[in-house]
Amino acid sequence: MTETIESLQHLAEQFGRLQGVGKKSAMRMAFSVLELDENEAIEFARAILEAKEKIHPCPICGNLTDEELCYVCQDENRDRRVICVVEDVKAVRSIEKVREFRGVYHVLGGVISPVNGMTPDRIRFSELLERVKESEVEEVIIATNPTPDGEVTAMYISKALRAMNVKVTRLAYGIPVGTDLEYTDEVTLGRAFEGRRDL
Amino acid sequence: MTETIESLQHLAEQFGRLQGVGKKSAMRMAFSVLELDENEAIEFARAILEAKEKIHPCPICGNLTDEELCYVCQDENRDRRVICVVEDVKAVRSIEKVREFRGVYHVLGGVISPVNGMTPDRIRFSELLERVKESEVEEVIIATNPTPDGEVTAMYISKALRAMNVKVTRLAYGIPVGTDLEYTDEVTLGRAFEGRRDL
Q: Buried (b) or exposed (e) across B33-65, using 16+ Cβ within 10 A?
């Protein structure tokens, strides 16, 4: 006979669904919920529902927001002639922390990866072309992660954009190859912006 | 101007309240919630409330349960003459995995630690004495963690129990000193049970 506290097991399964949470951490977190007081637990549950309900992608750039447009697209001081293309919203956060970049973003929501069935139509690629076509974009900085899929995506996008007569650059290799933008320290990321080169 | 998605920040704070979850992991988990589909998010929120509502300490041993008694205290095949005293419910889980111990438990819900203001009356110590007094207990195995506080607690309890004419043992030092029972592998924990010695 083994332990079967169903509601605890069930809660641990929910934590286990989150990215990067293993079975053991999930159970530890479930236990930890039991140590919260009543109100904290209610607040936790509510926060999950509220975040899901309120947060959606910005219709312009794909960044997350709980308003009509994301805070970058709302900001009139950002330079709309420079678009930084990133894989996901986490990359936006990382780049914003550096306070080096004053342009706007375009969140692809993935990378091209034929092996994983990720074709260009499954990321926000045509939306990017549309944006470049319809507004006065002077430079597109491609800041996909320096992984094989990220590189393939960068090459694919740059080919399409160069045909549209727009300057396409790629972040400099200050970023340690093979890692995620999310884990890059702010100084390195800053250097990568300074040293960006033509593609 | 920095990113201010309030509901995301708020959700990350909730994750950050859980034991062992740092700021960065908390934010990563909050993001991950956004990737759940609608129903999964609702299920997650519900699981938190349900776990809090249903799970309570077993009135006999202090182990967690969502029934009247915990599954160990319900089990008629467990030997009620042997009580294993542990710091918390996580230790119960670890010991149960070994399938070596056939007695019952007593969960202290903490350790004596004067520095942290943990006096014997703040753990389930008098309840243990009561149990030993009122039922036919032959042996109490003290399985507090092999940390300084765990040792102090073990000594304190053994002193009180020996005055009551009950055999008191301590898990053998198969457990690597300075770590938590929770992280001990099952073989080591099994050895610790076999080699337990008189206190």
A: bbebeeeebebbbbbbbbbbeebebbebbbbbb
Give the pair of three-digit tokens for residue A118.
């990720």
Tokens 């309900």 correspond to A53
DSSP-derived 3-state class of residue B174: coil
- The answer to whether residue A39 neighbours chain B at the CB level (below 8 Å) is no
Whether B86 and B92 have beta carbons less than 8 Å apart is answered as yes
Q: Which domains does chain B have, with CATH numbers?
A: 6-54 (1.10.8.420), 64-198 (3.40.1360.10)
Residue of B nearest to A94 (CA): B3
Report residue A150 as tokens: 């990220």
Going from the C-alpha of A90 to that of each of A25, A141, B91, the distances in angstroms are: 22, 17, 37
Please list, in sequence order, all residues whose beta carbon lies within 8 angstroms of the beta carbon of residue B63, skipping any fewer than 6 positions away: B57, B70, B72, B73, B89, B92, B105, B107
Q: How far apart are CA A45 and CA B15, in angstroms?
A: 11
Which chain A residues in 62-81 lie under 8 Å from chain B, judged by CB atoms?
64-66, 71, 75
Q: Which of B38, B40, B71 sits opposite A17 (nearest CB)?
A: B40
Which DSSP string do the residues of A98-122 spell out, in sequence order? HT---EEEEE-SS--BGGGTB-GGG
The CA distance from B119 to B140, in Å, is 21
Question: Closest Cα to residue B122, out of B149, B90, B148?
Answer: B149
- Given a contact cutoff of 8 angstroms between Cβ atoms, the answer to whether A156 and A63 are in contact is no
Examine the pLDDT at A197 and tell me if it is beyond 90. Answer: no
- Burial call A64-101: b when 16+ CB within 10 Å, e when fewer: bbbeeebbbbeeeebeeebbbbbbbbbbbbbbbebeeb
Q: Calculate what percentage of chain B has a pLDDT beyond 90.
A: 66
Q: Quote the radius of gyration of chain B (alpha carbons, Å).
A: 20
Residue of A nearest to B40 (CA): A14
Query: pLDDT digits over A54-107, tens only?
Result: 999 999 999 999 999 999 999 999 999 999 999 999 899 888 888 889 999 999
Closest CA to A45 of B43, B18, B17, B48: B48
Q: Can you tell me whether residue A175 is helix, strand or coil?
A: coil
Residue from B132, B126, B143, B168 nearest B85 by CA: B143
CA distance B101 to B193: 8
